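Last lecture ended with a question: if I hand you only a sequence, what can you say about the shape of the protein? Today we answer it with a concrete record. The protein is DUF6538 domain-containing protein. Below, first the input exactly as provided, then the predicted structure, then a couple of comments.
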Amino acid sequence: MGRRREEQEPDRFLRLRGSHFHYYRRVPKELRDVDARGEHVRRSLDTTDRLKARTARDLHEAADNALWSSLMLGENPEAARIRYQRAIKRAEALGFVYRPLADILVAEPLDTILQRAEATIGEPASSPVVDAVTGTVSRPDDKISEALKLYFDEIVRDELRTKSADQKKRWKAKRQMSVDVFITLVGDKPMGEITRDDARAVHKYWLDRIAPEKGRPDRSASTGNRNMGNLRTLYGDYYRHLGSPEQKNPFADLSFSDKSKRRRPPFPTDWIRDRIFAPGALAALNDDARGIVLAFAETGARPSELANLHDGVIHLDHEVPHISVQPREDPEDPREIKTASSVRKIPLVGVALEVFKRHPNGFPRYKDREASLSALLNKHFENHKLFPTDKHTVYSLRHSFEDRMKNGRLDEELRRMLMGHTIDRPKYGEGGDMKMWQEELMKIVLPFDPSIV
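The predicted structure:
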C-alpha cells in the first residue's frame, strides 16, 4: 500500500536542492544487479517551477517503468528491436521525432516537452503512445556479433538475393573477418557502447600491418580500408535499420592513404605466344581449366565470368560467334556480375573460338568455384615457370589483352566495352556492329597450335 500511495502523490520522486528540483527514485531491489545506476536514480530537472518539474518527472518515471518492465521480462534482442521500430513510427505519426527520453530532456525546449506530455493525456501509463512520444522504449543493445547476424539476415537480404551461393559465402566471410578482428581487439561489445577509442584501436591494428615501424608490411592499404569500411557500413546500416540514421558513426573518417595501388604487370605478347601457348605448357591442367586459360587470354573476360558461362550465353551459331557476360537470373541459382558495365558481349576469335567449340556448354567443373580455379591456375603457372616475374599472376592475362588492344589501336570506347569498364557518357545502343568488333579483334589475334586446345 505504501508504494501505491507514493505513486499517487503529486510531488512523488521530486526533491528540492536549493531552488532546483531533482528526480530521485529508488531502484527496485530485485533489479539492482542489472540496472547499472545502482540503488537510486538521481537526475536534475533544471527547473525551479514545480509544475514543469512534475511534467519532466512524469517522463523520467515512465522511462524507468518501461526499463524495469523489460528487465523483469528479460526481453530478447529481436523483440526489443521490433518494439523500438514501432515506437519510432508511432511517434512520427503523432507529429514528433522519436528521441530517447534523455535526449528529449537535454535537446528539446520545454514548450516541446510540454507538447509531448499533452499528447499523452488520457492514455494509460504503459500505452504504446506514451512509449513513443516520451521516448521510453530503449534502443536494442545488440552486441556487434548479433548486429552482424541481423545485417546478413535482414538488412542486406535484398542485396544477397542475386548472389550465388559461393558469392554469398565470400561476401559474408570478408565482413565476418572484419568483425572478428574487432571482437579480438575490443570484445563483443553492444553496438551502443562502441566508442571512437574502440574504432581507433582497430585502425591502429591495421596501421601496424600496413605501415609497421620496423620490417615489411604484410597487408595493403586497400585491405585496411576494406576492413574499416566494412565496420563503418555495418554500424551505419544497423542504426538506419533501427530508425536512427543520425547516430554518430565511430568508424567515420578512419582510413589509410593508398597512393601505391599496384597494377598487375601484363604478360608480354611474345611470352603468351611462345611460352603459355606452347604445346604441352598447359597439358597437365584438366580440360575445363585449360579451356578457361586459353579463352581468358583471347577475350580478356575475367576467369570468374568464364567459369560461370552456360549454353544459354554461348552463341556459336550466330553470324559472329560470341559470349554474353550477364547475370544469372534463375531465382533458384542466381549469380551477380561485378558491375553494370561488366554486362557485355565479346566476339570469339582465334583460340577462344576453338575452345568454345569444344566447350559449347561452358566449364561446369568450375561453376561457382572460382577460388579453387584461381588457386589451381596460379599453382600450375608457378610450378611450370609460366610467370615472367614473381609479380605476375594468371590475372595478368587480362591486362595483357587490354594492352594488346591499345597497341593494335582499337578504338578506346570499344576497348572499354570489351573489358567491361565504365564508359563516361550515356550509353546508346550496342556501340557498334558485332561484325566490326570481330574485325577489330582479328587485328590482334594470336597464332596457336591446334594441339593446345
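Comments.
1. Residues 151-242 form one domain.
2. The radius of gyration is 32 Å.
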